[in-house]
Amino acid sequence: MTRRSTPSAGPTAGSGDPASIGTAFVEALARGDWAGAQVMEDPVMAAAVPASKLQQLAQLLAAQYGAYQSIGSVTATPQAFGTIAAVPVTFANATVTLNVSVNSAGQVGGFHVGTVAPVSPAAPATYVMPGSFTESAVTVGLAPWELLGTLTMPNGAGPFPAVVLVQGSGPHDRDETFGLNTPFRDLAWGLASAGIAVLRYDKRTFVHGAQMAADTSITVRQETTDDAIAAIALLRMTPRVDPVQVFLVGHSLGAYLAPRIAAEVPSELAGIAMLEAPTLSIPQLMLLQVQYLASLQGNPSPSAQDQLAALQAAAALADSPDLSPSTPASQLPGNVPASYWLDLRTYDPVTVAASLTLPMFFSQGGRDYQVPPSELQGWEQALASHANVTFRTYSAMDHLLLNGSGPATPAEYSVPGHVDSQLVADLAAWLRSY
After folding, report:
1. pLDDT at position 354 over 90
2. Does 151 share its domain with 271?
3. What is the dihedral of CA 413, 419, 421, 424, to 10 degrees?
4. Which residue(s) pair with 95 in the sheet?
C-alpha cells in the first residue's frame, strides 16, 4: 500500500473509539508503519501477524487492488465478539472495506477484507453457465429480524432440487465474502448451472449486529438456527422448487449446526451437506486456531503466551460444569455471553448426526487450518454404519473452499479464486442423486 499523502500518526492501542482505532491501524499500514500497526495489536495477533507479516499483507493488498488512494467514512458496529470498524479504502482498481476487530481494551484483534467493489467485476468460475439461471431478491424471516437474500433459479419449468446455504461464524453477507472471494456465490452459481436452485441470505449478525450485541441471552438459535429454518420453509413454498428435495448446505459453524437444524425439521429436508464441519467444541476449536496462528511465527512472545493461556482458561470454563448464566462474558471466549456457551455445551453434533436417517455429505480440505483434516475422523467413525453418508476430501483446499499450496495462512484468503470445481461437481451429483 503506497500512500499518496502521509497522514499524521494515529492513536496507539487502547486510545480512541473503535472507528478511530480502525482508521489509525489502516493508515499505519498505508504509510508503511508496520511497527506502529503491530503496537496496536493484541498479544496473540502481534505474535501471529508481526510487523513483517503486516508488510506482506499490505503489499498483497496493493498487488491485488492497485495503489492506495484514500479512506472513506468509517462505521463501527458492536458484535458479540467485539466491535468491527469497517474502514472503506479506495485503491486504484477497487474500493475495499477492511473490517478491523477492536476489543474492549482498544486493541486490534484481527482484520480481514470485507466487501470489494472492483472497477472490473471478476469473471465467474469456469463451471458457471451465466445464461442457465436467473436471480431474484427474497426476504427471509420476519420483523424485526428480516434478512435480504438471493434466490438463484435454473431456467426451465422444474421442479428443481434446492438448497439453503448457511454461513460460518461471524457477520457474513449472503455471499460469505472475503476480499474478492465469494464462496457462497460460487456455490449458488455453480449448483444452479447444474440444475439446482439455491437460496442464500445475509446473516443476522451482519444485518442486525448492534441489536444482537445488546442481547446478553443470545444463543446460536438467534444467530443461525431460526433463520435457517425460516429459509427452508420459504424455499419449500417457492414455485418451481420440489418441496421434497430441499437440502441444507452448511459451511463451518453452519455445518456444525446442520444436524441440530435438521433434527428440528427432519420432515422438511431431503438431506444435509456439511462443508468443513468441526467436531470439537467451538471454544476448543477457537483455541486450536489461535495456537496454529501463533505457531506460524515460531515461539510466541511471553505476552502472547499469556494471551494463549487466558484463552485456554476461557475455553475450559466455557466447556466446564462451572459455567453458569451469571458467568461474566469477560471470562469467556470472545467476550461472548455465557448463554451462548451454555446452549452450545448441550449440543454434540456427532451424536445428533448419528441419530438422523437423512442422507449426509461431508467435504474436508487438506489445507484447512480452521477446521483441520483430523476433524473428519470423528464424523467417519460415528457414521460408519450409515449407508447414505458420503465423505469427500480435497487435498489442496482451504477453509474458504479455495485451492492453494504450502502451509495455509490467513493471507491467502485475500487472493482471488473460486470454490474448488471438483467439490461443486461432487456436491451437485450428490444432490441430484436423492
Report:
1. yes
2. yes
3. 150
4. 90, 117
